[in-house]
Amino acid sequence: MRKDEFQSFLKCTSEATYARIYEYFNNQRHISEEHLAIISRRYFIKPGKALRPALLTLCALLCGGNEENVRSAAAAVEMFHTWTLMHDDIIDHDEKRRGIYTAHVFASKIGKMNLALGKDDATAFGEALAMLGGDMLHGFALDMLMHTKTKPGLLIDIASEMDGTLNPELLSGEQLDIRLSYTPWEKVTTGMIMEMMRLKTGALLSFCAKAGAALGNEKPIRKNSEAQRLGEFAVCCGLAFQLQDDVLGIFGDEKEFGKPIGSDIREGKRTLIMLDALHTLPPEDKGKMLRLLGNKELSQQDLQFAADSVRKCGALARCQAMANSFVKDAQEILGQFPPSRHRELLRQWSDKMVGRAK
User: Nearest 5°: phi and psi at 172?
Assistant: First the structure.
């Protein structure tokens, strides 16, 4: 199979997903507050890669489903993912996503321009509005999911999995991430960070895979061996994705990454690549690195020192090797399914998860 076939599938999935989302918003008449309507649509101005909708769709097709029948479910997971980004950006104090101002930053500008708010009030207004926008999308995601064409009982099963299992797992991962940010580096362990990544990133991908499989073979998720295996496949890919995301946070290109490079260092974010570096750097460099982590006033020279140190001590290479190991595990799980076009597309999807660093 040619690589451009996968790119074509991803492009078509993104276009179909966002067309369904735009249609949903155009039919939405219940948002009476103009500012809330603007912010809830904010991250759909520049469409994402639609990796999660593609995963759900491919798992459905692999298990015998119909692509058109899962369009609403695919759009629902993109909507769900987007509300988590909106809240995550507030927590992480990120100013940019996909090359545009994040929801809370843009909302604060609305506060300044439209309500003549001062700096502090505009910041508070922006964060509150973005939180409400995220909450709005959370509800819309569940509503959109309920428009999926399948057996009513199965739809209830999938909706229960989304709000009863995925939601608490994902939020627990977010809370663990927050708790780790207040935990001294010497008390942070690899296991803590791995669990945070599994919950914060892997849980949503696992849901996409399991929901897609369930829609494909029309079997409840918990009694569905294909769904469970594809869920494990997706978790491995999620771990690889997060590892590479952390790499890009230090070494990426800001225009391609869509977020400021070095923000993880300025925030002192507990990542596996940085924990590895702190364990292996010479004492003098480790001391300097600890002084840089969490310092919001870092210069480009400071960021370059951090990047060079992470590379020289081997943490970058080990992190990339671990990401590739997870992709290999994922592909071994995928190999348990009979050869098909959709299995090959899923293999290429998993390659893309780690290929973000290339």
Answer: -65, -40
